[in-house]
Write a structure and sequence with these properties.
With 317 residues, this protein is an alpha/beta fold. It has two domains: 166 residues, Thiolase/Chalcone synthase (Peroxisomal Thiolase, Chain A, domain 1, 3-Layer(aba) Sandwich), CATH 3.40.47.10; 136 residues, Peroxisomal Thiolase, Chain A, domain 1 (3-Layer(aba) Sandwich), CATH 3.40.47.10. It has a five-stranded mixed sheet with strand order 1-7-6-4-5, with helices on both faces. It starts with 9 loop residues before the first strand and ends with a strand.
């Protein structure tokens, strides 16, 4: 990995995603905890989520998404110099999921590391990878958001078990022509709110839902606006918003603040729930495959998560 002197314009060359086969519906959860489909849908917008099979690891999920992104990008394995995996559910503390993924994919030149910023992790990872490619430190970077949240979900807690699922999404970054690619990033954190969304002493997700909701409603729109301002653009320039898929009411609040109609927002949380760092790349890949992203479109990615953390990016497709 040799650093070059000139800055390069960096964009997304390919996307990919993968979700496990098993579907956990609201009806299934009704048999597990005191809840019902109407309550879940009204408060979250979620109807079902995917759950990893026994023995299916976070690395397994990441590998499937990464292979799809690499194929879509046309980038050869030996041309990938960096692998970053955003996750809070790595297979083990070390080696990193990124190192395991690098070996599986056969990327002999690539440095690899995991990044943990909870649900905002993918945006954080994008920022780091983008700067590495722009500076000439590497030619191409593979960025993956992969989560096996079922491994840290308490299925006796009705307030949290209805929210989370498993899956992975990936992108390949590389140089693009002038006028395309990433224009700006906005990253932030507030450690004083760390206890609002955390892993408890039993190893399960614990959340103060009311306070996290208030934080999310405020920060989603604000982070997007800050990133747009850095890019020299306004909310009127947005062609597609790809938000973290946590709660439909949070997404609706962001749309209202950004004065966007629903057709300019990618939403798939009804089928996958909250997949933490995988939510945004999963939704982005689906938008690409469905033809909702066209060359020249202004795409805004925005998310928030435990930490508390948040991030947004603006790119011209």
């Amino acid at each position: 990995m040799n650093a070059a002197a000139t800055k390069r314009q960096v964009g997304i060359l390919g996307t990919g995603s993968y979700v496990p086969e098993r579907v956990l519906t609201n009806g299934d959860l009704e048999k597990m905890v005191e809840t019902n489909d109407e309550w879940i849908v009204t408060r979250t917008g979620i109807r079902e989520r995917r759950i990893a099979a026994e023995g299916e690891s976070t690395t397994d999920l990441a590998e499937r998404a990464a292979r799809a992104a690499l194929e879509a990008s046309g980038v050869a394995p030996e041309e990938v110099d960096l692998v970053i995996v955003a996750t809070i559910t790595g297979d083990r503390p070390f080696p990193s999921t990124a190192c395991r993924l690098q070996e599986r994919l056969g990327l002999p030149r690539a440095a690899a590391f995991d990044l943990q910023a909870a649900c905002a992790g993918f945006i954080y990872a994008l920022s780091a990878a983008c700067q590495s490619v722009a500076s000439g430190l590497c030619r191409h970077a593979l960025v993956v958001g992969a989560e096996r949240l079922s491994s840290i979900t308490d299925y006796t807690d009705r307030n949290t078990c209805v929210l989370f699922g498993d899956g992975a999404g990936a992108v390949v970054l590389g140089p693009v022509e002038e006028g395309r690619g990433f224009r700006a990033f906005e990253l932030g954190a507030d450690g004083s709110g760390g206890d609002l969304l955390t892993l408890n002493e039993k190893g399960f997700i614990a959340m103060n839902g009311r306070e996290v909701f208030k934080f999310a409603v405020r920060i989603m729109g604000a982070a997007a606006e800050e990133a747009l301002a850095k890019a020299g653009l306004t909310k009127a320039d947005i062609d597609l918003l790809v938000p973290h898929q946590a709660n439909v009411r949070i997404i609706d609040a962001a749309l209202e603040r950004l004065e966007l109609p629903p057709e300019k927002c990618m939403v798939n949380l009804d089928r996958y729930g909250n997949v933490s760092a995988a939510s945004i790349p999963l939704a982005l890949d689906e938008a690409v495959r469905c033809g909702r992203v066209k060359p020249g479109d202004c795409v805004v990615l925005v998310g928030f998560g435990g930490g508390l953390t948040w991030g947004a990016s603006v790119l011209i497709w």
